[in-house]
Design a protein that fits this description.
181 residues, alpha+beta, Pnp Oxidase, Chain A, seven-stranded antiparallel beta sheet, 33% helix
Length: 181
């Protein structure tokens, strides 16, 4: 179920939370991400514990939240899928880091580069098996969101009616399935 198109959120430099399983129970890891090729890409190192958990059990979930305090709107994208731990792609790594740190590596914080970036040696690819996009809002924002959802529903009905009309005009007959006229 999607309350909105998640593409906008997936291009923002937001923090995501990766949920994995372990012998000791569930674990959550804050991660940076890149959305490319219909997959979520994460970065890590062999020293991190979450790649080890994903190799043992690739099923995982990722939660991304975008909270607009001024408008009182909280959007959430939830992804479930299977992770694949891959070797580091330096070009993809640069695109991911540029989202958060800026496009010029020489301007990135030196301590951060040395202690975090330089030890990265793997990537994790998660292809969604399911994805949800939900909107939660403050009471003041609720009427506008209800109206927007109603408008989207009405637009869907108008598009369906327009497609039906085009079919009738093109073929001279109503090609709707029985009971759906």
């Amino acid at each position: 179920m999607m309350d909105f198109d998640p593409a906008d959120m997936l291009t923002k430099p937001l923090l995501a939370y990766l949920a994995t399983g372990s012998q000791a129970g569930p674990r959550s890891s804050p991660v940076w991400f890149l959305w490319e090729e219909n997959a979520l890409w994460l970065i890590g190192s062999e020293e991190d514990s979450f790649p080890k958990r994903l190799r043992a059990e690739p099923r995982c979930a990722v939660s991304i939240v975008d909270f607009d305090v001024a408008r009182g709107i909280c959007r959430h994208v939830g992804i479930r899928g299977r992770a694949e731990v891959l070797s580091l792609d330096h070009f993809r790594l640069h695109r991911l880091l540029a989202r958060y740190l800026g496009p010029e590596p020489d301007k990135w914080n030196g301590w951060f580069r040395f202690n975090i970036v330089d030890i990265l040696d793997l990537m994790i690819r998660i292809v969604p098996e399911s994805m949800v996009g939900r909107v939660r809002s403050s009471p003041a924002e609720a009427p506008r969101l209800i109206a927007a959802r109603a408008l989207c529903g009405e637009l869907d009905r108008l598009l369906t009616a327009g497609q039906k009309l085009r079919t009738i005009m093109r073929t001279g007959t109503d090609a709707s399935p029985p009971g759906r006229a």
